[in-house]
What does this fold into?
Amino acid sequence: CFHWPTVLTVVWTLANRNTSSLHLLCFELTLRAARLLCLLLHELSHLLVAAFLVSMRLKSGDSYANCVGSLFSGSVLKLSLPDHRSACTARELARQLLPVKPVPGLNLELSHRFARRDDDLVRIAGLLASLLIAAMLVPQPHSSWTAWSIFLGSAATAAGALLSDCPGLALAPGPAGCFCCGNWGVLLPREALPGKKSGLFPDPVRELILQMLSIVELRGAQAGGCNIFLARSGCSGEGNAVAVRSRVVKTKRGHLGHQMFQKLRRQLRVRWAKGIFCCRRLKPLPGVLAQGHSRFGTSSAPAEGETHPHQWLGPHRDTVWHRSDMDGSWQCEKNTEVCVTITHNGDFDGWKVYDDTIGVDTLGIWLSKVLHHKNTARGDSPKLAGMMDLLVTQGRWAASLRLAFIQHVLQHVDEVCGWQDLTTSSSNVFPAPAVFVAWGKVCETIFADAVLHERYLSPDKRTLDRIVENVSHFLERVEDAVSQRIMDEYSIHGKQMTTFCREACHNFFFNDMLSATSAFFKKAEGTFGISVSCNLRPDRIVLAAKGQPISLAFDTERSAALWASEPSALSCASLPGGLRGEARWDLLDASGEAVELRLVEGGTANEQLNLLKRNSVACSRLHWVPYIPLPGTDLSEPRNFHMFLRAMDLDKKAKAAPVLPPVLKARWVTMIHMECPSERRAPGGLKPTDPVDADIKEIPKVLAEIDMTWADPNSLNRVSAERFKNCINYLVQRPESQCHKKEIDVLIYGVENSLWLGQQFAADLAKIFPRLNIVAISSNWVLGMLQKDHGHVDATNWTLTEQTFRLSQFAITMAISQSGTTYPTVWASRLLARQPGYRYMFAMSGLFDTVLGLAIITDPLRSNFDRSRFSTMSGIRPAEPSTLATMAMHHTLTKLLLNCAEGFYTRPRLMNDGRGEERNKKGTNRPPACELALSQVVDLQALGNSLVSASEGICGVTKEGYPMKSSTYKQIKVVSAYLSSYLTETYWSTVIGALYVFLSVTLGYPLLSSIWKYSTDGLRNDGILLEAEDSTLMVTFKYVFAHLDAWVYVFLAALLITFHRLVTGRRLWTRYTARSLVIVDSTVNYKLLRAYVSKLRALAYRFTTFGVAGQNGLDHFVHEMTHLTTSEVLVLVGRQDGRLASLASAEASTLMSSQQARYISSRPCGGIEAVSLGHNPFPGKPGLFKHTVTLPTDQRPLFLSQKILSTKDGGHSPGSVVSKFEALKHSGIQQVDSLPEFPWVTKEQVQALMRGREKVNIHEARFIIDSIMTEQAGSLHINAKDVDSLKLLGGIPGSGGQTPISPTGNTLGIPSILNFFSSGTKTPSTNGRTSGTQTPTRSEQRRQSGLIPPTSFLSLLPSSQKIDRELKDNISMAKIMVTLRGPAMRRHVKELQVEHGQRGLFRSCFESWVRLIREMKEKPTQVEKSVLSSRSLNFLVRKAKQAHTVNVPAEWRLHEWKRAGRTALGIAFGFSRRMILKSWRNYCRSLSAARGQYIPGSTRVI
It folds into this structure.
C-alpha cells in the first residue's frame, strides 16, 4: 500500500503556501483520479499483452483452454489485490479516491503453465505503458495546478510500476491462506533453509509457517502473534539474544498472516535503526526459533494485549550465570536482558497454592503482588506467563530467592497483602524486588568465590551443602534494615534460614524450563497445549500438552523440527529445497506429556549426548530424563547441527517417567505429505481465491475417490468396514436372552455437522437392523455423563442419565469428526475407552491419521492399522462453511451402511433370519434381523454409484476438475443470482443512498431542486421566461421542489430498494426490512444448510443483514414458522421426489406446508416468496414458487414404482401418485381416480371412421372400437389387445383380438413373460406323448385366467343367426358411442387397468431377477459375486453358469424358488405368494415347452 498521493499533496502545500484547504482537497482528488485512470491503463496493457500470449499458445494447440474468452473467465489470468481478494476489486478501486487513504496496488497472475519469460513480458508491458503515459503528461513550468496534479498521479503510477513490474525489483504479493487456532512454530538451523537465508527473519521460514497455518479455520483466527530470537552485536555469551514479538488483531477481511509478518518486519526495521545509533545492531542467530499462536476470542476479547505470545514481566535486566555445555565452566553476565515467552491453547482454570486451588483471576492478583508487576490482560494465558516468570529461575539468584521465599516462608496467599482479602485494592507487603536483588548479590559473591576456586563446579551434594552453609551464614548477618525487618517478621533464622537457602540453591541450579513446566503442571487445573521459551536459551523450546493436542514433525537429515496444534498442518509444510517433516510424533495429551527440543552445534551425536548428560542434564531437577537422538540419527556422523529431545509424562501422582528411544521409535509416524490448501490449483493452473467455491468444484473428484476406495476390498476403509460389519452381525445374531432394551448396542456421537449426519446414519441403521438399540448423541452429553472431574456438566435435556447410560457387552461406538481434533469428540472417545468392559470403537474423520484416531486406541505403541478408522477422503478443508466435507462424510456413511446390509446376506446362517422370517414363526414377537432385502441392497448400491455423475451436473465440473456445460448448473446460477439480489438490496440502498446524500449536500444540488433550477435557467436563456417574471408562483414552485427533495431524502432507502427490485425482477411492494431465509427440508438437510448459510452470513458486509432459520416441512414448519410468513421472508424448499411411491406422501405434505405459508396473506404482494429444488418437475399450484430448480434423474437407476405407475417422465402430482399406489397396493380392486374411465372420442371422429355411412356391420364396428382403444391405450393404462369389443357390442364372443405373440425386442429368445400372467399355456398331455405346442385362442386364455365365464348367452344362438348378425349393417353411430362411453366400457376399462397393473408388477419383478442373473453370467465382477454369494441364490449362480443357450436357470425346484423368492425378490405390494408361484410356474413350463424339454409327471422343468 502507498501513501504517495497524500505525500505529494503535502509537498505541493509546502511549495504553494497560499493555497486554501479546499484547493488542496481538490488537488489530491484530481491526483488520485489521475493515478486511478493511469493504473487502469497500466493493467489494460498487461491484459493486452497477456491476451496476445494466450492466443499464440492456443494456436499452437495448448489443451488446457479452448478460446481466448477464457482469458476473462479466470482460467488463464487473475486480476486481484495483493491479499488475493479479487471479489473486492471494485470496492478497492473506489477506495483509492478517498483522501489520506493508502492506495493498494493490483496483481496480475499468469497461469503457472506459462514460462517465466512470458510473465516478464507481461510485466514489462505495464511498466513501459506507465512510463510512456507519465512522459506524455509532463507539464510546463507555469502550468495550472490541474496539469501538475494529473502529471504527479501518472508519475506515482510509474513509480509503483517500477517497484511492482520491473524484473528483479518486483515486490512479492502478500501470503494467501487461512489460519488455524492453536500453537505453531519451527526450530531449525539457518543453514538448512533453501534459497535466501540472510535477513533477520528469513523468507523461507515465513513461507513454512504460512503453509502450516493455511490448513483449517476451525476455531477462528481473530488475532495472532509470533516471537523470534535475534543476536545482539557487541555481546558475547548465551545471554546475548533478544526476543522480538509481533502481535496483531486482524481486520474483518484482512489477512492475519500478512498483517502479522508485516508488523514483524516493521519492528525489525525499527530495532535495526535503533541498533545503528546504539552500536548494538541485531544480527541473526545460527539457529532459527519461531514461536507463535493464532486465537479466537474465548477467555477474553480479541485485543492485542490479549493476543499470544504472552509475557508477564517482559524483557527485564538481571545477573545471569551460565554453565557451558562443552566443559561445564561457569560464566557470569551482568545486566543481561531476560524474557520468558509462552503460548497457550486451552483453558487455565486454576493453580494450587499452599494446598488451596485458586482461580486464575485471584492468581493474577497474587502474581501482580509477588512479582510487583501488573499485567492488564484479562485472559487466563497471561497468568500462565506469570507462573513461568516465577518458576524459571536457573542461573539467577534474585529470582531463585524470590521463589524460595514463596515456597518455604509464606504459608497462605493472603500473606502478600497482610492477611487482608486478596483484591486489587489491598496493600502489598511482599518484599520488593530490591530486597531479593540485595540478597542475590550476597549469594553471587559467595558463588563467584566458589567458582574462582573450582571453575568446573558441579552441583553435587557436597557443593550444595557448602554453598548453603555460606549463604545462610552471610544472610544472617546482613546489616540492611529492611532485610533485617523482613527476616524478623517472617522468622527466617536458624533452621528456617537453612531450609530457605537450600531451596534457593536448588532453584538456582536446577529450575530449567522443562523442570519449571513440570512443576507448573503438578499443581495446575485445566487443559493445556503450551510452548515455553526464554531468550537466555534461544536454541531450545519446551512443549507440553495436557487436554489439548500438540504434534511435532522432524526432518532428521536437516535437524529441523516443526510443531502445531493440528497434526494435519504438519503434513502440508514443505519448502522447495526438500525441507519438510518426514516423521511425526504426537504428544500424549490425554495423560499429559512434555518435551524439550534442543538444537546443538557441531561434533557427532554421541559426543554431544555425553556432554549434555554431564553438564546440562545434571543441572536439572529432572536429572533422570535424558536427552535422546531422533530415530534414524547416525550417532557417529559429524554434523554441523544435531537435534535432541528430552521428554517425560506429566502424571501428578507418580514420578515423571522419561520417554526412552524404544518408546519414541514405536510412536514414530512416517508422514505422507499432502498439498497445502492455499497451494491447490485448478486444472487451468490458477489458485482458487474462494475456498468455499474451490471445495464445491472438488466434490465430484472426492466422491469418485470414495467410490474407488470402497470398490477395493483391500483398502483401509473396506478393511475397517469388514470389522464393523462383523460387529453388527454379532449383535444381530445374539440370542434374545442376551438383549437388554435399556442397554445401548450402537453409540454414535459428534458435534454440529458430524452429529447431524451421524443421527441420520443411526436412523437408517436402526431401520435396517431393528433388533439393535442405536443412539446418536452429542459428544458434549457423552462428556457430561462420563466426566467426573473438574468441568463436569450435566446433560439436563437428554433422556439418558449417568445411571441409565449403559453400553451392552461388545457394543459399538462411532466417533465422527471431520477435522479429527474436535475437543469434545476426542475426549468423549477417551473416556469411553477407559470405561470397564469390552467394546468396539470406531472413528471417522477426513484423514486416517488424526488425534481422534489415536483417542480410540488403548495402546499408543501399536504400530499396525487397527481396523477401526474410516476416512472420508476429503482431507484438509480450510472452508468453515462446509460443503465438500459434508458431502464426503455423507457418502462414506452411505457406503458403510450398505456394506453392513450386504454383509448380512453374505452369511448363510444369518440369511435365514432375514426379512419376514421371524414374523412367520409362531409365538415370537421379535423383529427380523434385517429389514432390507438383497435386491434393495443392490438397487441402493446402484443409486449411490450414480452420485458422482449427478454431482458433476450440479457443480458444473467433471470429476477431473474441468468445467462442463450443464442445464442444472445454469438453473442453480439463475436462482443464485436471484437470491443474491434478494439479500443485498439493503447493502446497495445504503451505499448508493449515502453517496447521493454526500454529493447532493456537499455540492448543494439536490435532485429535484436542481432540475427546477436548470429548467428555469434554460427558459430564461431562451427568452421564454423573463427575469421580471419571478412571481409568487415561481417562488412557490421553488419551495415545492425543495419539499419534494426532503421527501426524497426521507424515503431514499425505500426508493432505491424499490428500484433495485424493479431491475432484478422481484416483487416491488414488500417490507423494507432485513431479509430472512427459511430453509424447509428434512431434519438433517435443513440443519446442515442453516449452518452453512449462517457461516456465509458472518462473512457478509456490515449493511447486508439477513436472518437464517430452518425446519422440517413434515414436522414443525407450519407450527413454528407461521409467524414468519411475511413479505420479507424467502423460503427455500427442498422437495422429495414425489414420483416415487415411497416419497409421494412426503412431497405432498411439503407442498401443503409451503402453500399454507405462501397463501396465508390475502394481499397480492403479501406473503412469502418461495424457491424450490427437487427432482419432480411438477410445479405445484400456480404462483407457489418464484423459481424452481429441477435436478435430473437420468443418472440414477429406474425405480420399480416409476415403471409400474408410469411416472418416470415429466412432472407428476404427488397426490395422484399416492392414489395410484394405494390402488395398486390393494391388488388393483379400487379404481384409480386420476386414470380416465373411458376413451375420449367425439362424434365427428366416429363419423370419419364410419366414412359417412349411417350404419356399419359388426366387424366394421369392432374395427372402429379397436382402433380407438389402440390409439388411447397409453392414456388409459391398458393393453389394447385385451379389449373384447365383440362382447361390448353384444355379439358372439370371439378371441377379442389377435392371437398374442411375443413382443419384438425380446432379447431372451423366449416367449415374453407378459403372456404368462394371464394365460395358462396349453401343455402336452401327461400320457407321455408330446405333440408339440399349440397356441390357445384369446377366449381360452381369458377363460383360463378366470377373467370371463366359460360360456355366454351369445354362444347359445343358432349359427345362422350368428352369420346374419355379423354381415348385416345394423350398428349405428349412437350404438358405437354408447359402447365407447357407456357403463360397460367403464367396467371393462377398470378391469383392464387392474390387470395391466398386475402384469407390469410381475413383469418388472421377474425381468429384474432374470436381468440380475444374466449380468452375473456376462460380467461376474467381484462386487456382484459378493452380493449374490448368499446360500439362497447359490443355485442361481451355479445354474446360470451351466445354461449356455438360455440366460435363465435351466432347472428349478419349487421349494428353492420359494425361499429365493421371499429373500431375493420379496412379496411386492402385498400380492399373495400363491399368485406369484403360479405365474412363475406357468412361465417356466412355457419355456420348457417351447424347447420341447418337458418331463411328464414331474414338477421339474429342464
In short: The first helix runs from residue 4 to 15. The chain has a mean pLDDT of 75. The first strand starts at residue 77 and ends at 80.
